[in-house]
Write a structure and sequence with these properties.
Elements (H helix, E strand, L loop, with lengths): L7 H7 L9 H11 L12 H9 L2 H15 L3 H24 L3 H7 L4 E6 L2 E6 L8 E5 L7 E13 L1 H4 L5 E2 L18 E2 L4 E13 L5 H11 L6 H31 L3 H15 L4 H17 L3 E3 L2 H8 L3 E4 L11 E7 L2 E4 L10 H9 L4 E4 L5 E4 L2 H12 L4 H7 L2 E8 L4 E8 L2 E8 L1 H6 L1 E6 L2 E4 L2 H16 L2 E11 L7 H4 L3 E10 L6 H10 L3 E4 L5 H11 L8 E4 H5 L3 H10 L3 E4 L5 H11 L4 E5 L5 H6 L2 E5 L5 H6 L2 E3 L4 H27 L1 H13 L8 H11 L1 H7 L23 H29 L13 H24 L7 H4 L5 H19 L1 H7 L6 H10 L1 H18 L2
Parallel strand pairs: 9-21, 9-24, 17-20, 22-23, 24-25, 25-26
Antiparallel strand pairs: 1-2, 1-3, 3-7, 4-5, 4-6, 4-7, 8-26, 10-11, 10-20, 12-13, 14-15, 15-16, 16-19, 17-18, 19-20
Helix pairs in contact: 3-5, 4-5, 4-10, 9-10, 10-27, 11-12, 11-26, 12-26, 17-20, 19-26, 22-23, 26-29, 26-30, 27-30, 28-31, 29-33, 30-31, 30-35, 31-33, 31-35, 31-36, 33-34
Length: 892
């Protein structure tokens, strides 16, 4: 930003403005030139263009063709039913798309709607979107900054830049300062940025950049440029769709030719080809998957994880790495002072009383502090402000310090606020008739500014040996998981703090204060479960490396080995290959003192190496990394709206343990999707076999296309959904994450569904078909009138045989290798409700006249029902034998 390197008159000339602001006409011309001060969005396609891909994918095209052929074949009911399936699937997908990305809208909502500008020397209240470069904005405490601007006048100005930097401390801004060329833009002392807030004082500022050109706008553009890849589940469903489509068309063509060779009419073969296609296409698959994912979302919500995107439910189950914050996620974000260092020794706070602690250290803890003591609703006292500063006040109270009296006796004369670049703050007070500067901040920064040591009543030179002993004490406390602050002081001739460097030099070191933010008690078990599930956990924090290492060791993220700690400075000098090598060559890696933007780089490196990455974040500048991650996890309590909108998952309790619980739910959802795919695909074989036998044996067609749809979209639907509610099988979190190469529809599933369960179901239904025809006097080669009672009853037997077989198939597919009797026949009440539904629907198709006409069904006799109920249970018996053999061979 060029104006930061210019003094105020030069900056005004550079922006072709003046101290009285812009003339109204000039402002209007600049508005036309630069556009409105808004965060622009990607142009959204029309509703038609958004819905077309969902209605023209391979699966949809296959159904459109089948429906059109059915209509041509004078079967309008079938055609309408198939068209309805396509439309329902498209609507489901479109609804989820509309709910997906709102990150840019959230960015816009953070901006102020109205602001005050100086136009022709007069203050005017205008819409923030009408601000233009060259305007002078007038801001007070509590105002949101509407654009990137160069401060030209300020009074005690403090700005909270956390939306951009992640730092919670307010920072000072001063228009008299002129920056040097290599100053990082977010650390410029004379610039304020769109989307930040004025927390103290007031200012006038010269607008330099608006809208998409601001730092805020760049984040929005970066977020928009992150293109979403298909989730693992979406990719697998696409594979399933292609396989089913190719298989269906190929079988339709092959058996059409076989029918011609067997002497059937072209119309019969045409109808047969339609039947083969409809029988092979699992019309209810996509709605069932969608509804199952939605139910998984509800279960996750009960475990403090709100999932915003349906496909994210399943993606969680395949997560291989979690990049996690420390404060508030692994810890309780409840700072408590536990150790003090002064007079060359480290002391436990509990072993001290107020008389033993130097007054100079207590003064620093209380006076160089912006937290406040307030009356509690419960009758006691509470602290408001930054948790770290509140912890300092709390410790001072425990040691008998009268905070209110100290603040009154030693009023603050001036302040140099905390700054992320300086990593320290200084306040000036009148103590014992002198102007005294009290500083606190990062130990490395404070000690570097000290040339003396305050020891007892003396001030001594700070030699190298003493300096090293202080740094060693800092490392010792940090190594115990404490966040350490250093304190120093200096007498001043004047309370003027405009020259920061002259105030904060040659100070006298006072002491160190160590604060502990305890880990959440449930995190250790959650980390252990994650590791047991083959999921790597890597800490990415802005804290000191030794502190991060201690917490990581306490919660089990790292073991006994010494981890490699990569700082943000070191990371900036590493290319992606170097980062990948560090992660690959070191069992334990911690990223410390890194910015939220660094998460983007780490995430990309892990993804490029084939990992499925979950990333936690809470700030605006976390949004690109959250969106780029396979699973973006935002904090529900501490997170900004932008982070929540960019994320796929929002933790309502900001707790790492909830991520692991969500992973378990994700794995369960994937496992359950395989279960109901097995269940649905198993019924395809008894639907296809009648058509094959119809061609090869020249028998009456045992099953109509409408009856196939009654199974796929009617009787199968609720039992399949019930399988989506199965609890996790034992040991699900003791298995490694599935590979990206693992297919949802693999050979094992196909063999079980098509080659085993499906064949058994076909045997049951076709046995019933031939048994009934034999009793009716039918002989091979005899034609039957499709409207005759005998034919309709024969097809009803086959249809009902498939449904009854599916009753036992749903129990067979509830577990993969565990016996369903071990899991509990009655442990999933939804399965029983599904069975009631499908049997009730069968009864309706048997006895309701209008349904009889549409589906060609008639009521069955007791003997026919009895035969089917006698044969179908053997499917479950055979499956239990198969599971026993698998358990025996694998030793499970």
């Amino acid at each position: 930003m060029r104006v930061a390197y210019l003094d105020i008159p030069e900056a005004l000339r550079f922006m072709e403005s003046s101290s009285e602001g812009l003339p109204s006409e000039e402002a209007l011309q600049r508005l036309k030139k630069h556009g409105r001060n808004v965060i622009s969005e990607d142009t959204r396609p029309s509703l038609l263009r958004r819905v077309l891909p969902h209605l023209t994918n391979l699966f949809a095209i296959l159904l459109w063709v089948a429906g059109a052929l059915a209509y041509i074949a004078s079967m309008p009911q079938l055609a309408y039913a198939i068209f309805g399936v396509v439309i329902i699937n498209g609507v489901f997908s479109l609804i989820q798309e509309f709910k997906a990305e709102k990150a840019t809208e959230a960015l816009k909502n953070l901006l102020p709607r109205m602001t005050t500008v100086l136009r022709e020397g007069r203050p005017e209240r205008i819409a923030a979107e009408e601000i233009v470069p060259g305007d002078i904005v007038l801001l007070e405490s509590g105002d949101a900054v509407p654009a990137d601007a160069r401060v030209i006048r300020s009074s005690s100005l403090l700005v909270n830049n956390s939306a951009l930097t992640g730092e919670s401390e307010s920072v000072s801004r001063n228009g008299n300062r002129v920056e040097i060329e290599d100053t990082p833009i977010l650390e410029m002392q004379n610039v304020i940025f769109m989307g930040t807030n004025v927390t103290n004082g007031n200012c006038s500022a010269l607008v330099a950049r608006t809208g998409q050109e601001t730092e805020f706008g760049k984040i929005a553009r970066l977020t928009q440029e992150v293109k979403e890849d298909l989730s693992p589940l979406q990719k697998q469903i696409a594979v399933v769709t292609r396989l089913v489509a190719y298989l269906s068309v190929a079988m339709g063509v092959v058996f059409f030719g076989l029918g011609v060779a067997a002497g059937h009419t072209y119309f019969e073969n045409f109808m047969f080809a339609i039947g083969i296609i409809v029988a092979n296409v699992p019309e209810g698959l996509l709605p069932t998957v969608t509804l199952s994912l939605a139910m998984g979302m509800q279960r996750m919500a009960r475990r403090h994880a709100l999932v915003k995107k349906l496909t994210a439910v399943e993606t969680l189950g395949s997560t291989t790495v979690i990049l996690t914050d420390k404060t508030g996620t692994l810890t309780q974000n409840r700072m408590t002072v536990t150790r003090l260092y002064f007079d060359g020794k480290v002391h436990d706070l509990d072993s001290l009383d107020g008389d033993e602690i130097p007054e100079r250290l207590l003064d620093g803890m209380v006076l160089a502090n912006n937290a406040r003591l307030i009356a509690s609703d419960r009758g006691g006292q509470d602290f408001v402000g930054d948790p770290t500063e509140a912890a300092l006040l709390s410790a001072a109270v425990r040691l008998g310090k009268d905070i209110e009296s100290s603040v009154r006796r030693f009023p603050r004369l001036a302040e140099i606020p905390f700054d992320s670049r300086r990593k320290r703050m200084t306040s000036v007070h009148r103590i014992s008739g002198q102007n005294v500067a009290l500083s606190k901040g990062a130990p490395g920064e404070i000690i570097a500014r000290c040339s003396e040591l305050s020891a007892g009543t003396e001030v001594l030179p700070l030699d190298d040996a003493t300096r090293q002993s202080i740094l060693a004490a800092n490392d010792e406390m940090s190594g115990s998981g404490l966040r350490v602050l250093a304190f120093a002081r200096r007498n001043l001739a004047s309370p003027d703090v405009r020259d920061h460097d002259s105030v904060e030099r040659d100070m006298a070191f006072v002491g160190l204060v160590g604060m502990f933010d305890p880990p959440r008690p449930e995190v250790s078990l959650a980390v252990k479960r994650a590791h047991g599930a083959g999921i790597g956990v890597t800490m990415v924090t802005g804290d000191y490396g030794l502190t991060a290492e201690s917490i990581a060791r306490r919660v089990g993220i790292i073991g006994h080995r010494r981890p490699r700690i990569i700082t943000g400075t070191e990371l900036a000098g590493m290319d992606n290959e170097a980062v990948a090598r560090a992660l690959r060559d070191n069992e334990d890696v911690i990223f410390a003192r890194v910015s939220p933007e660094d998460k983007m780089k780490i995430t990309r490196v892990l993804q490029d190496s084939g990992q499925i990455v979950a990333v936690t974040g809470d700030g605006v500048n976390d949004a690109p990394a959250l969106k780029a991650a396979d699973i973006g996890v935002a904090m529900g309590r501490a997170g900004t709206d932008v982070a929540k909108e960019a994320a796929d998952l929002v933790l309502t309790d900001d707790n790492f343990a909830s991520i692991v619980s969500a992973v378990e739910e994700g794995r369960t959802v994937y496992q359950n999707i395989r279960k109901f795919i097995t269940y649905i695909f198993a019924s395809n074989i008894p639907e296809v076999v009648p058509y094959i036998l119809y061609v090869l044996l020249r028998i009456p067609l045992p099953l109509t296309v409408m009856q196939i749809l009654a199974v796929d979209l009617g009787t199968d639907l609720l039992p399949a959904l019930a399988l989506g509610l199965e609890p996790p099988e034992p040991g699900i979190m003791e298995r490694p994450p599935r590979s990206r190469r693992e297919r949802l529809l693999d050979s094992r599933l196909l063999l079980r569904a098509y080659g085993f369960l499906g064949v058994l179901e076909a045997a049951v239904s076709m046995t019933g078909f031939f048994w009934f025809l034999n009793r009716s006097g039918w002989v091979l080669g005899q034609r039957l009138d499709v409207n005759s009672l005998v034919y309709r009853r024969a097809t009803t037997v086959v249809f009902t045989g498939i449904v009854v077989s599916q009753v036992f198939n749903v129990f067979a597919t509830r577990t993969d290798t565990t016996s369903v009797f071990t899991a509990g026949i009655f442990s999933n009440r939804w399965v029983w409700l599904g069975i009631v539904w499908e049997l009730g629907l069968v009864a309706a198709l048997h006895y309701v006249p209008v349904l009889q006409r549409v589906f060609g069904t008639v009521p069955l006799t007791a003997a026919e029902w009895g035969l089917l109920w006698l044969l179908a249970p053997w499917i479950l018996v055979a499956e239990e034998v198969r599971k026993w053999l698998v358990r025996r061979s694998t030793g499970r």
